[in-house]
Amino acid sequence: MLSALRPAALAALLGLTGASPGLADRPRDLGEAVERALVSDGLRGAIVGVAVREVASGRLLYANGAGRPLLPASNQKVATAAAALLALGPDWTWETTLLRQGDVESDGTLAGALLVRGSGDPTISARFGGGRAAATLERWAEAVRAAGVRRVSGEILCDDSAFDAVRVHPSWPEDQLTNWYCAEISALTLNDACVDATVEPAALGAPPVVRLDPETAFVSLRNEATTTRKGNEFGFQRKPGTNEIRLTGRVSAGTGMEPASVTIADPALFFGTVLRECLGRAGVKVEGPARRATAAEAARPGVPLAVHRTPLRVALPVCLQRSQNLYAEHLLKTLGRATRREGSFAAGAAAVVEALTGAGLEDGSLRPADGSGLSRENRASADALARILAHAARSPHGDLFRDCLAAPGEEGTLKKRLLEEPARGRVRAKTGYLNGVSALSGYADSPGGRRLAFSVVVNGFRGASAPAKSLEDAVARACADLAAPR
């Protein structure tokens, strides 16, 4: 075990006291708490990094393998979100604009096209649309009609050029691209680049009822599932490169279902197609299809008909509390576009490191490949994550950043963890998980007001993640609790 400070010195730094009668089994200090958790059989052979830093001074209070770059899983989002917030500020705003290109004739015909110009907003979705994926586009359709347009002679042109054309990171798992956390990344995105499918049982032996949101001809659904007396075992598959979705399996009679999100191919055309359908329902006929705009078409002047604006601060809690990968990737590519004029994975990764220069990172301690942590090419040391957290906390946006992290017992990835006091009231953190990888990084506040930044990253364990999570929780709990009076 490599510790920056031995337990006695650490206790002095944290202001810890000896155990009171009746609490003899309680760890006396952070070092002891970590050491107890590390002896778990489930962590045998695993690689562990632990770092704890005092936020105000940046001082390292505890380290165990803290400098070794490891797979951070979704703790990569800590770096991505902090970099975007520090470089762009919370009020940096995405704009998605609908313009008409051409004049409106006396009969209500737009002699030209409608252009939708995206800048990377990830929030146009059911999450922010009152539970309806196309709510924003429905409002846009009404705005077009209110502008006197009844017919569009041209097409819906989709400009997603703010991001590059690489919509899936090459290191993402190919067999998981149907799952919501592997959604394609585009500067023009609707509903997290997914359709939400609600499955309900029908009569015994009949196919279940499937409702899609948004309802759109952009996807085709083959319902091969069956309603059975008991047992739910069904799933969706999408043929790679297409929007052909297939439902198979068994759906139990008498049960209600939560919507399942299924990714789509080509989010920009998805956006444009659903907009065209919303316009049709609003009484505006579009003669041409939705298609991607050429550079020349996107550069033509137009008259704005509707605009949707979202400040960056709105996206951060979804990224950090709910661990939404698409939001992290949009932050990454937005940062690349804003600072390096290139909305790509590579430019965004370089921009993240550049934006975090003030954190005092050691060379090679943070090596991003994507924004979310889904790629197994990401590397971050526990100390790099603790330094980033401490640096972000000292910034003018420190309280905002902390509040965007998950809180125990509340909505988000810590809803069922660290539920006991005082951790429940003093910890904010980001979880992370991949096969064989688990991590937890965040803040813990002592009763006296001292804020600590901690990071625990575990790689290479086999089987369940429970022992790794126990270690993570032990560190978070110790940071929050060991300074309390005994």
Which architecture of the largest domain per CATH? 3-Layer(aba) Sandwich
Count of alpha and pi helical runs = 13
Kindly state the percentage of residues in helix. Answer: 25-40%
Report the portion of residues in β strands: 15-25%
How would you characterize this protein structure?
This protein has 486 residues and is α/β, with parallel strands linked by helices. It has helices at 7-14, 30-38, 76-88, 135-146, 267-281, 295-299, 312-320, 325-340, 345-355, 382-394, 398-404, 423-426, 466-481; strands at 47-54, 60-64, 93-101, 109-110, 113-117, 151-152, 156-159, 194-200, 209-213, 220-223, 226-228, 233-238, 244-252, 260-263, 285-286, 290-292, 303-311, 366-367, 379-380, 427-434, 437-445, 451-459. The strands form six sheets. It has a five-stranded antiparallel β-sheet with strand order 2-1-22-21-20, sandwiched between helices. It has a five-stranded mixed β-sheet with strand order 16-7-5-3-17. A hairpin with a 2-residue loop joins strand 20 and strand 21 (437-445). The radius of gyration is 25 Å and the shape is globular. The two termini are 27 Å apart. Mean pLDDT is 91; it is low at 1-24.
